[in-house]
């Protein structure tokens, strides 16, 4: 392993390759291991895991519907899908939808369809962005190229992936 030899004040004086037994005898309490650099493949896997988390956070973080906030978490998507199915069966169907704390709106069949389409488009845009960043991560030729790809690029480069305004 690579170790740093320290003086009594903790200042690095040298770097050597040695095993723990030698270091404990020759420099008791005055050395520390230098962590090995992760392989490029390990770094890619960590970056992909961070990217998946960022995509999910953005995916469920919401979008807007004609200028109003629209939640896009899994539960809301489920409710929108159920409302959309009801609206397809009954064009006169409407529901009261909570659009913000303390604020409810009536969604008719057309609005329900529009809301479901908006939510679907937002979620798909999140996965499309993740796919593009995944390709960049997998194509990174070295650690510097990998470091240049923001793991949270999904959020940093596209704070609002999609905003659909109803005509």
| Contiguous helical run count | 6
Question: Largest sheet at a glance?
Answer: 3 strands, antiparallel
Coarse shape: elongated
Give the distance, in angstroms, between the N- and C-terminal Cα atoms: 65 Å
Number of strands: 8
Task: Tell me what the structure shows.
It is elongated, with a radius of gyration of 26 Å. The relative contact order is 0.15. The model is unreliable at 155-167 (pLDDT under 50). The chain is of the alpha+beta class. 50% of the residues lie in helices and 21% in strands. The strands form 3 sheets. The protein has a 3-stranded antiparallel sheet, with no helix packed on it. It has a 3-stranded mixed sheet with strand order 5-4-8, with helices on one face. It has a two-stranded antiparallel ribbon with strand order 6-7.
In short:
With about 170 residues, this protein is α+β, with helices and mostly antiparallel strands.
Features:
167 residues; alpha+beta; three-stranded antiparallel sheet; three-stranded mixed sheet
Summarize the helices and strands and which ones pair or pack.
Elements lengths: L1 E5 L5 E6 L2 H7 L4 E3 L6 H20 L3 E3 L2 E3 L3 H16 L4 E7 L2 E6 H31 L3 H5 L5 H4 L6 E2 L3
Parallel strand pairs: 4-8
Antiparallel strand pairs: 1-2, 1-3, 4-5, 6-7
Helix pairs in contact: 2-4, 3-4
